[in-house]
Design a protein that fits this description.
Largest sheet: 6 strands, antiparallel
Number of strands: 24
Strand content: 25-35%
Distance between the termini: 48 Å
CATH topology of the domain at 4-111: Rossmann fold
Number of helices: 14
Radius of gyration: 21 Å
Structural class: alpha+beta
């Protein structure tokens, strides 16, 4: 049975009865995934583990941590879950897809060996080097003494990265030798990021503008999603510490067909070739973080799952059914698919707890969500939220992601901030310049 109506000429879902779907994770990305999957005519029930206050409104929250892999497998078996979608990187790196496959359960995401492309910066660098994929020059270190000696002759600024996963916070730009020394000490000797910082990468600082591209990859073929840009720094003007992401917009204002051609020829195809040469078949969502320099595209990092908050900006723009696309990826049929896109732009603003990404307080009462939802073409995705005593309260660093669609980036941005202004909780923090550079660039061109 064909389902071209939903963007795919192939779909296991189209031949199946209504499906039970489990979304693993409890952030804004997972709420966006559950929200989009809920729209599928093939979706019968949506479970979210552990979910949040937002996912509870569209599905059934399950009190299982995303890191409790055995409990997740048991739940999927006992409840006859047809498809599991893994949101965060940690369970992927720990091999959750392998565990599901061993129990003959379908899960969307790469295997443990394939997830190394994100779980190990050193593995990714070596792979890029072998395939001549353009990236920053880098050196890797297992001993802090060697890293410190390297910094004595380094040209600053440099970028210091923990080899493993560090919740999006394991990347430090060291402007001088003193900052580099303290960062190396914190990562390698004080174990700020645990085992993730046992080895580090020190690489050249690249200048340019960043862009995020997502691709559904079935091992040999891929389907590109629209472009997006995120805002990683905590404060306006790209100041403050790196965070998991304070906002995003799509499409990116710095992307072009010429850059896409370079991306496919010099990055995507060599990457998949290199993985297959190592006996690794990547099936899932590949999300390269790119920087556009004066010398062309360079890869900053690879991610093996949907980005956060890029997902909250991208999914509202997808008019196609997401479920058949995920199914085709698993079944190595993504080459039969296409995606219908809403031509409007999307802007996502993240509301965070004061102090994030450092220490922050939780349990703050949130008001104004219903008023914010009344703004036309606005969708509110929950991240760090929970139900308590009959109200919604904060339960994390990034609390909400407010996404708006508009005919232009400026229009979408205006609507997003209109909705944001109606939401209140104690010590709420958000950047006021999300997508502002894109609006300014449009004005300059006119």
């Amino acid at each position: 049975m064909l389902c071209s109506r939903y963007g795919c000429l192939y779909s296991a879902a189209a031949n199946a009865s209504l499906m039970k779907i489990l979304v693993i994770g409890g952030g804004g990305r997972e709420h966006a995934l559950a929200w989009k999957l809920r729209q599928s005519p093939h979706a019968e029930r949506i479970f979210c583990a552990p979910g949040n206050a937002g996912t509870a409104e569209i599905g059934e929250n399950v009190a299982i941590s995303a890191s409790d892999l055995q409990a997740l497998v048991r739940f999927a078996k006992e409840n006859r879950v047809d498809l599991t979608v893994v949101g965060p990187d940690d369970p992927l790196a720990a091999g959750i897809v392998d565990l599901f496959a061993a129990e003959k359960l379908r899960a969307f995401g790469p295997t443990k060996s394939a997830a190394r492309i994100e779980a190990s910066k050193i593995f990714a660098k070596e792979l890029m080097r072998s395939q001549k994929i353009p990236t920053a020059e880098a050196s890797t270190f297992s001993e802090s003494s060697e890293a410190l000696r390297y910094c004595e002759r380094a040209k600053f600024p440099v970028v210091i990265k923990a080899d493993g996963l560090a919740l999006g916070k394991g990347v430090i730009v060291a402007a001088d030798a003193a900052t580099a020394r303290s960062t190396i000490d914190e990562m390698m000797n004080q174990h700020r990021f645990g085992d993730a910082g046992r080895r580090i990468v020190i690489e050249e600082f690249l200048r340019g503008t960043e862009c995020s591209l997502h691709a559904l990859v079935d091992g040999r073929n891929y389907l590109l999603l629209e472009s997006a840009r995120d805002h990683k720094r905590a404060l306006d003007g790209d100041r403050g510490p790196n965070t998991g992401g304070m906002g995003a917009f799509s499409p990116a204002d710095n992307w072009s067909s010429k850059l896409q051609a370079q991306f496919e020829a010099e990055i995507m195809r060599p990457l998949l070739r290199g993985l297959l040469q190592q006996g690794i078949k990547f099936r899932g969502l590949l999300y390269p973080g790119l920087i556009i320099t004066s010398a062309g595209l360079r890869v900053l990092e690879f991610n093996c799952r949907f980005g956060d908050p890029e997902t909250q900006a991208l999914l509202p723009r997808i008019k196609s059914d997401l479920l058949p696309l995920l199914e085709a990826t698993i079944d190595e049929k993504i080459n039969t698919c296409a995606i219908e896109w809403d031509t409007r732009a999307a802007v996502t603003v993240v509301l965070a707890s004061a102090g994030y990404p450092g220490k922050y307080e939780t349990g703050k009462s949130i008001s104004g969500l219903e008023e914010a939802a009344k703004v036309k073409d606005v969708q509110i995705f929950h991240a760090g939220t929970k139900h308590a005593n009959g109200e919604i309260r904060t339960a994390g660093g990034r609390v909400l992601a407010v996404t708006a669609l508009g005919l232009t980036i400026e229009d979408a941005r205006r609507r997003a901030y209109d909705a944001v202004s109606r939401i209140h909780f104690e010590n709420c923090r958000y950047r006021r310049d999300i997508a502002l550079s894109a609006v300014a660039a449009t004005i300059d061109k006119s």
